[in-house]
Amino acid sequence: MITSSRRPIALITGASAGLGAEFARQLAADGWDLVIVARNVERLESAATTLRASGADVEVLRADLLSADGLRAVEARVAASGDRAIGMLVNNAGYGLPKSFHENSIDDEIGLAEMLILVPLRLTHAALSQMLPRRSGTIVNVASVAGYTPRETYGAAKTWMLSFTRWANVFYRKRGVTVSAIAPGFVYTEFHERMGVSRGSVPKALWLDADTVVRIGLRDVAKGRAISIPTARYKALVAIASLLPTSFVVAAAARRR
Ligand SMILES: NC(=O)c1ccc[n+]([C@@H]2O[C@H](COP(=O)([O-])OP(=O)(O)OC[C@H]3O[C@@H](n4cnc5c(N)ncnc54)[C@H](OP(=O)(O)O)[C@@H]3O)[C@@H](O)[C@H]2O)c1
Predict the structure, then answer these.
(1) Is the per-residue pLDDT at 3 higher than 50?
(2) DSSP 10-38
(3) Closest residue (by CA) to atom 15 of ligand 1?
(4) Spans of all domains in the chain
(5) Ligand 1 test: best mutation among 44, 90, 95, most atoms within 8 Å of CB?
(6) Which of 48, 78, 100, 109 has the highest local Cβ count within 10 Å?
(7) Which of helix, strand or coil describes residue 161?
(8) pTM for the whole thing?
């Protein structure tokens, strides 16, 4: 439990694996204390041991963000003020569904929309409740290049995140709070394995390391950018996709599930 740390505190959702675990490593190395959130408490405790050895205070918060109790507990921690106030929220936890919209159950689709839209929406609201009065804070939303290319409800949810972030970046900047989104392409994490889809359909040249994505992302966040698209290659792909007919982009994205 953090008591009177002078280091700023970052809360990261989905910190037991992939990009979230990498955010934890890089932020700890950069002088942040951490609150790490996910369901798998053994993995969180193991990560916490390593992170503490690098000098960070680490609070483990086991929570299923799709359960009412879990989300309430994380919201309360994000909204805490005084010595325990977090200076950075990283809305990172997420997953994808393996099938097409009509093939998934409506409960699975609603769960995905909750995870990718309602959870970051609620946690951002909770964070602003303590950041705006202090006129200080940073909110990082992990979106995806899928937000630029029509792709099932996953892409639509990430489009919501990019649009919300663009607005919030301008609106809250004057009030001392930076809101930024990072929109990566394909990243080597557990994401595709958890979804049960093979990485084989995606050319090697399109895969990024979590280390690169988080390093470029945090650099752009520090500059106050609304959106960070890690690597020139993906910036170019997003620019090209915006010029192509939707039917072409949808077909290309479907081949790369
Ligand atoms: N990998 C990619 O190619 C890629 C590309 C673009 C964007 N993204 C985005 O990057 C973010 C992180 O994904 P990743 O690639 O790092 O995936 P990952 O390696 O599968 O990690 C997902 C994280 O989310 C947590 N999580 C999942 N469901 C949860 C729940 N109900 N409650 C709490 N935590 C939950 C997992 O922890 P537990 O299982 O322990 O709960 C894990 O820590 C996501 O928002 C994803 O959409 C990924």
Answers:
(1) no
(2) EEEESTTSHHHHHHHHHHHHTT-EEEEEE
(3) 191
(4) 9-255
(5) 95
(6) 78
(7) helix
(8) 0.96
